[in-house]
Write a structure and sequence with these properties.
Order of helices and strands: HEEHHHHEEH
Number of strands: 4
Strand order of the largest sheet: 1-2
Largest sheet: 2 strands, antiparallel
Structural class: mainly alpha
């Protein structure tokens, strides 16, 4: 069973507040001792309370004086560089939480718009979308088109590289040998011919414009040219 999360607020009940103080003070001293022992560092703790006439220190008065003296020898800027109080600590936690929230909201929005984009491909009506949704959908389409263009360029380069390698292999397979005045020409092997045909098929696949009658240079997409800067004013995405 998980322990109930404690609310960080002042304990108004005197008995409960005193019991909590004793329990947490003991745990704090133990943690400081463990940190100093495990990591080999200088650390100290000074605790004032209304329940004791003298402050409680760890490890000892001399140990505290040594650590404090070392701290005071540091430049003023270095002393306050990582110094926090309750207010600044909470401010840091709040700022970190806000950043995480914004990141999660952006991720959720991208997933939502991606789902809308795929649903529109199946014929779903977009009349229910507001102007912000339309702008975000246009931005998402532009990003996907850019990724498609990058992938096509990458496949073209791979196809050209493989075609060049196949041509080199085909040239190496044609050997002319002179034997007794006769010229013998060795034809490319079946494996070489199959490789050439396979490379040609791959080139045709990544260059459909040369073989097919659609997606020509004159065709315009309804949402603009993805190779240019996005024309969509963005309501959500940066």
């Amino acid at each position: 069973m998980t322990r109930k999360k404690v609310e960080l607020a002042y304990i108004t009940n005197d008995y409960a507040r005193k019991a909590t103080f004793k329990k947490r003070k003991k745990g704090l001293m133990k943690k400081v001792s463990e940190l100093s022992t495990l990591c080999g560092i200088d650390a100290c703790a000074i605790i004032y309370s209304p329940y004791d006439s003298q402050p409680e220190v760890w490890p000892s008065s001399l140990g505290v004086q040594r650590v404090v003296a070392r701290f005071k020898k540091m430049p003023g800027m270095e002393q306050s560089k990582k110094m926090v109080n309750q207010e600044s600590f909470l401010r840091q936690r709040v700022a970190k939480g806000n950043e995480q929230l914004k990141k999660q909201q952006k991720d959720n929005r991208e997933k939502e718009i991606t789902q809308v984009m795929f649903q529109s491909l199946t014929g779903k009506d977009l009349q229910t979308l507001n102007i912000v949704d339309i702008f975000d959908l246009g931005w998402m389409i532009d990003q996907n088109l850019k990724e498609i263009d990058k992938r096509i360029e990458s496949l073209k380069k791979e196809a050209q590289s493989l075609a060049a390698a196949a041509a080199t292999a085909a040239t190496a397979g044609q050997l002319i040998i002179k034997n007794g005045g006769k010229v013998l020409e060795e034809k490319p092997t079946f494996d070489t011919m199959d490789a050439i045909q396979g490379q040609q098929w791959f080139v045709d696949l990544v260059n459909p414009n040369e073989q097919m009658g659609f997606f020509g240079d004159d065709m315009m997409l309804p949402f603009g040219d993805a190779k240019q800067n996005a024309i969509w004013p963005n309501g959500f995405f940066p």
